[in-house]
Amino acid sequence: MVSAAFAFLLLSGFVFAAVNGTMADVNTALFQSMELSIQLALSLAGVILFWTGVMKTAEAAGLVRSLAAIVQPILRRLFPDIPHSHPVFGLIASNMAANFFGLGNAATPIGLRAMRELRQLNGDKDSASRSMITFLALNTAGVTLIPTTVIAIGLKHGATNPADIILPAFLATVLSACFAIVIDRHYARKRSG
Amino acid sequence: MAVWLIPVIIAFVIAAGVYRKVNIYETLTDGAKEGLHTWIAIVPHLVIMMAAVAVFRASGAAAWLASLFAPVTSLFGIPSEVVPLAIIRPISGSATLAMLDQIMREFGADSYIAKLAAVMQGSTDTTLYVLAIYFGAAGIKKTGDALKIGLLADAAAFISAVFAVTWLL
Description:
heterodimer; A: mainly alpha; 8 helices; B: mainly alpha; 80% helix; 0% strand; Gate_dom (chain A); transmembrane helix (chain A); signal (chain A); membrane (chain A); Spore maturation protein (chain A)
């Protein structure tokens, strides 16, 4: 899928340039991009290193665990198919808490363990269960506290206040997560007829 | 208000670490080392995707694609320049980081288009990639409504982003 996206962007660009006579611009942009991409990468390096350090500290101080403990009771309502005392709730809560703090590296292995547990609970081993679909709907809606890379790009381009996107981004992500829960319920009801 | 948020979060984390007797200097530097690995893993994706995005944009294909959607997006007050970003976002986060970089260079980091693109990028995830990894690891072949729900939620985030940027910025 990523290959298809890459091929689409590149090939449609070349075809368009051939038809529109913008091949000279494309050549310049192509070679400029190789320098600009390294500049972009360098402008992101510091923020990724520093923020991962801060969030690792948050994890060591037990903040990820505290947040997971807070969301766990809410999760029982969202996953009616899972037995109430099942340990997979802990994994799902930890995955969401780690994602919230921007700890993608920590969130993914926990999330994959949660998926395997959900598969154990599922009668059909080939098809996604309702709980899996709910879990991934929450996961891809992606509630994140601070979109640090986006702030760093704003800073690089001289934004007056690059941090001002935090609140709108948080609002948008919360709204989309709520919407994901609603349509997930809708489809679950449709499936059960 | 927003300028307080990051210092407050950092101060809170550090204070919690000190209170819980965590060796904070070690966790900070260990985390930074992990961040370094993350960064190294991202760089090749940025270089490769940035080339495709640059060709797509410089050729005029991006503007053409945007103009196709302009009649629809203008109804909602959405600048059509963000349409390519919205389409590629669920597939490749590196490609859309490159697009965000270009939008900020072209329109200025304080422009409405740049702020909207930034909020769109920051409030969504690489849905297709996440689904592929999670279902792949669990060995699930029939993924049901997961993709539909994920993409609809992304669309909801993009529309929410328009309202959030208009109201809060």
